[in-house]
Automatic annotation (TrEMBL):
Residues 16-152 form the HTH marR-type domain. One of its GO terms (molecular function) is DNA binding. It comes from the Bacteria. Keywords: DNA-binding, Transcription, Transcription regulation. Transmembrane segments: none annotated. Pfam families: MarR. PANTHER family: CONSERVED PROTEIN, HTH-TYPE TRANSCRIPTIONAL REGULATOR RV0880. This is DNA-binding transcriptional regulator, MarR family.
Amino acid sequence: MPETAIPAPRELSTDPDEFAFRLRSAAGRFVRRLRAERPEHGLTMTQISALFTIRNSGGTLTPRRLAEIERVQPPAATRTVAALEERGLVRRAPHPTDGRQIVLSTTAEGEALIAADRQAREAWLAARLAELDEADQAALQAAVTILDRLARA
């Protein structure tokens, strides 16, 4: 496999708007590239996002809350949950304190799909990171901390 050449960065800009644009553009390209490494499992990006959200909720997520988190209308969330349930990836259970509601959780099949998805993307990324020199790796490690802080602001 030929080594991927990583272009040298352009001159750093002192213009905060240009810097913001370049950072957002690079982050978008990076996320799209990671998505391309997903194994083919026949799910839409909406379904994948919902599956990860349900998984991360720890079995306490209602369909209404899923809609809020995913920023979709409740009927769209209901259709997404139905598709995931039909594939055997999520299950519904009675809400522990409100008999009128249900909570969503992932099944063993859903957990396996999530694990395969993460493993494929992380394997690709680990291989790309290993191609970088120590200085670039150190810079990215520092950037991770900063990006985490920005994401939580």
